Amino acid sequence: MLAWMYSEETICRELAEGVHWEIVRHDECDVGYFSITVGADCVAKLNKLYLLPEFQGRGLGQEMLVRIFAVAAQNGVSEVRLQVNKANTRAQRAYQRFGFRRVGEAVFDIGGGFVMDDYIMARFVHE
């Protein structure tokens, strides 16, 4: 699944389709990344947010979310939505601290024998 989702081909295609990707740097090191897609309905989807484990718990994730919301606002977005695995309680708590609320659940068969069992969370850009 990771080889498919993060292949050079997949990322290049997403960039060409307008998906916004950013690499996050701290002390001149790449420590994480995120990608968001702005929909025609003024809703952005936070596709990916990753921070190296050794940099978690330092407030960098919250800084990443601030940046994500700045990008969303620059693109006229009114709401940001995301999916988070139901078992990932640490990420859920981080998103809730930032003002996200649970708005639904979804199970997705993403192929190759992989199934995503997620909560859908959302937050308005101007809260």
Would you give an account of this structure?
The protein is of the alpha+beta class. A six-stranded mixed sheet has the order 1-2-3-4-6-5, covered by helices on one side. It has four helices and six strands, in the order H-H-E-E-E-H-E-H-E-E. The mean pLDDT is 88. It has one domain: Aminopeptidase (3-Layer(aba) Sandwich), CATH 3.40.630.30. Helix content is 29%, strand content 43%.
Describe the secondary structure blueprint for this structure.
Blueprint: H1 2-5, H2 8-16, E1 20-26, E2 29-38, E3 43-51, H3 60-74, E4 79-85, H4 89-97, E5 101-111, E6 114-124
Show unreliable segments: none
CATH topology-level name: Aminopeptidase
Largest sheet: 6 strands, mixed
Strand content: 35-45%
Task: Give a quick summary of the entry.
This protein has 127 residues and is α+β, with helices and mostly antiparallel strands.
Notable features of this structure?
six-stranded mixed β-sheet, 4 helices, Aminopeptidase, 6 strands, 127 residues, 29% helix, alpha+beta
